[in-house]
Amino acid sequence: MPENRSSIIRRTTSWRGRLLTAALALPLATAMATAGLVAGTAAPARAAAGAPAAVPTGPTASVTLGDSYISGEAGRWKGNSVASGGSRAGTDRAWSGSAADPAKVYGATYASGCDRSDVAEVRSAPTVAQTQINLACSGAVAENVFRASNGGRPFKGEAPQADQLAAVARQYAVKLVTLSVGGNDLGFADVIEACVADYLVWYSYCHDEQQGEVDARMPAAMAGVGKAVDEVRAVMAGAGYAAGDYRIVLQSYPSPIPRAAEIRYPESGWSRSDTGGCPLWNGDADWARDSLVPQISRSLAGVAAAKGVQFLDLSDMLQGREVCSKATRQATSTSAPSATTSEWARFLDGGLNASQGALQESLHPNYYGQSALGRCLTLVFGKAGGNWACRNTAGQDANGMYLTAK
After folding, report:
1. Sign of dihedral through CA atoms 391, 370, 229, 383?
2. Which of 13, 130, 327, 391 has its Cα between 20 and 30 A from that of 401?
């Protein structure tokens, strides 16, 4: 049960401010010379006007657009650990042996904050096409996908993603465009900030108020997602592609937090925040896992159906692999990280695990989760049509991912 309010307020410390900052930072390869980092061979800048007479004959490409859940945010981490330094018990892939260098994982996009990791979804699905191109950027909203000529806005020093796609579509034979967007339009950062604050500071719960906020934002957010799909189609048509030349997949979001009954830390005390990095009350965890994430998935499925594109439901993709899940464990000096036992999402940085990496990595699929997402993408590309949900197999690594029809 929650402690009394005065006791909780007394426990407010500097690391708690870091947790709140982490929530704010959540908003949920080589770049083209003019438009940011892209996985694969660098493509020369070309004018968007004047479509080629035919689709380029090669090489083939798989392209991802959207936000942090597809850009590769948190790919630096192989599970979680409260180890105090060095490689953090083998979880920090950026550790060089003497210092941490995030550019080892994110390349030059670490400087911009787009955080396109070397194991981002598209790069973890190398058999889909000859070239894997990642145009997504951590923190992006739908307007960052639209063409500049149709209301799109640059983001983190890069042109709108649809304009980047136009150049790619003239250089490569694009076979698949995968889109993950809408979460930041719904205000994921605001929701997480409120729920973390209600756990760390106030004797209250976040879900009633935040449900109303999400409901209010949902129509505009889904309209933005729909327009983003339209923008992809317009760009591809402008580059000479017919509808059957390529495929669009719209995907949803996995829950990084388990339901209350599956959290390994008690609700009372401070192990959820100090050690586990999952500072939520049981009621809020249940709401996030079993109400919010499914609601967003249903809404995105509705957009996919309305726009006639394939839908990939990821809402249960991290089941049993979430932050603080009873079915997982943290790495220690005597227990190395493992794809079969470690968490597949990054914990909320704070408490005993303070100052590990960037705050914006929190509550995103990590190295293991992104490898699994790549397997999901590979599997759905093998389906000529239909809508699918991707799930994991308990006790197995990314090779245990499988699809079920929606």
Report:
1. negative
2. 130
Angle (nearest 5°) at CA 211 between 230 and 349: 90
Measure the CA–CA gap between 33 and 325, rounded to whole angstroms.
42
Tens-place pLDDT, residues 24-41: 444 333 333 333 334 333
> Which value, to the nearest 10 degrees, does the dihedral of the CA atoms of residues 317, 319, 325, 329 take?
-60
| Sign of the torsion angle spanned by Cα atoms 355, 360, 365, 366 | negative
Total domains in the fold of the chain: 1
Residues spanned by the domain of 163: 5-405
In the block, tokens 């426990």 appear at 11
What tokens were used for 332?
């220690």
Q: Exposed e or buried b for every residue in 288-298, given b needs 16+ CB within 10 A?
A: bbeebbebbbe
214 in helix, strand or coil? helix
CA 209/CA 202 separation, integer angstroms: 14
Q: How far apart are CA 399 and CA 396, in angstroms?
A: 7
Question: CATH no. for residue 323?
Answer: 3.40.50.1110
Q: How far apart are CA 2 and CA 282, in angstroms?
A: 10
DSSP 337-379: --TTTB-SBPPPP-GGGTT-S-GGGTTSB-HHHHHHHHHHHHH
Least confident of 10-14, 181-185, 239-243, 382-386: 10-14
Count the alpha carbons within 13 Å of 370 in the hemisphere toward its beta carbon: 31
The whole-model pTM stands at: 0.89
